[in-house]
Amino acid sequence: MDWNDAKVFSVVASCGSLSAAARQLGMSQPTVGRHVEALERALDSRLFDRGPRGYSLTEQGRELLPHIYNMERAALAVMDHGGNSENQIHGLVRLAVPQVTSSYLTRFLHDMLAELPGIEIELEAKNDFVNMARREADIALRTEMPQSGDLRVKHAYSVEIGIFGSPEYVAAHPEARSEERFTKCEWVALQRDVSARSVDWLTRKMDGRRPRIRCATAAHVHSAAEHGAGLCMGTIAYLKDNPRLELVSPPVSELRYDYWLVSHAELLNRQKRVRAVWDWLDALFERELR
């Protein structure tokens, strides 16, 4: 059995389709399919049922998956042991945070590296589910509290959403400061598959109309609004110091979000570099956002 085939198998099992697994692995979809087929040939077993809704594990696949996870954890433990001493605070720590949070967090990375000079950071901005069981990240920031797994979870902070526009746009459109904003102003918003909750709220307020500009990332939404394309919604704590955007509404009571710090309990207990970054982030959120 080829270890690379096994790793691809575990990602397909997690994602449920070749296309999603290919995006996560940075491979082409045919390459992912070849790895799965090679593993099935090596084990002489059909591991997935292929259907119009994706790939689902067969009974043989469900029996195999825990063994693959155990192999992955063992391999990661070997790499940890072979690297820097666990008692030293240096080495790589991988962070996974939602896209909307990444731009905010990058403002503070210089301070983190100054206080933790031996640390290296890989920051991944993604809204997709991060599988902590497979160590896709050392520390994750999530908008939903995980319900299972040997994880350490701590409430990081809560945020409120407000409505923003560029100073020039707001001056030219005084209705931006009133409820008329929903019928008389242009809007820039996220695509619904990125943030269904906020987009559905805005669509209701706009009587079913859709914003004329819809973006895949919050950074693009904010940039368009900064340049006068219309009003946008944004996290007040993240945007309050942005001179190119002006808050024109009180917090939207229906749109309050909780964020959770998540890591493996074993990592926090055993890897001082991970614990150091966890504690640094916790202190940052306490100081800036709670």
UniProtKB/TrEMBL annotation:
Asked if the Swiss-Prot or TrEMBL record annotates the protein with the keyword DNA-binding, the reply is yes
> Gene3D superfamilies from the xrefs?
3.40.190.290, Winged helix-like DNA-binding domain superfamily/Winged helix DNA-binding domain
Keyword rRNA-binding listed = no
In terms of domain of life, where is this protein from?
Bacteria
Naturally occurring in which organism (per UniProt): Aestuariispira insulae
Family that this chain belongs to: Belongs to the LysR transcriptional regulatory family.
Stretches assigned to the HTH lysR-type domain: 1-58
The record's listing under Pfam families reads: HTH_1, LysR_substrate
List the SUPFAM superfamilies. Periplasmic binding protein-like II (SSF53850), Winged helix' DNA-binding domain (SSF46785)
PANTHER family in the record = HTH-TYPE TRANSCRIPTIONAL REGULATOR, TRANSCRIPTIONAL REGULATORY PROTEIN
Q: Give the UniProt keywords, A-Z.
A: DNA-binding, Transcription, Transcription regulation
List all membrane-crossing ranges: none
**Protein name, per record:** DNA-binding transcriptional LysR family regulator
GO terms in the biological process aspect are: DNA-templated transcription
**Top-down, what is the taxonomic lineage of the species of origin?**
Bacteria, Pseudomonadati, Pseudomonadota, Alphaproteobacteria, Rhodospirillales
GO terms (molecular function) for this protein are: DNA-binding transcription factor activity; sequence-specific DNA binding
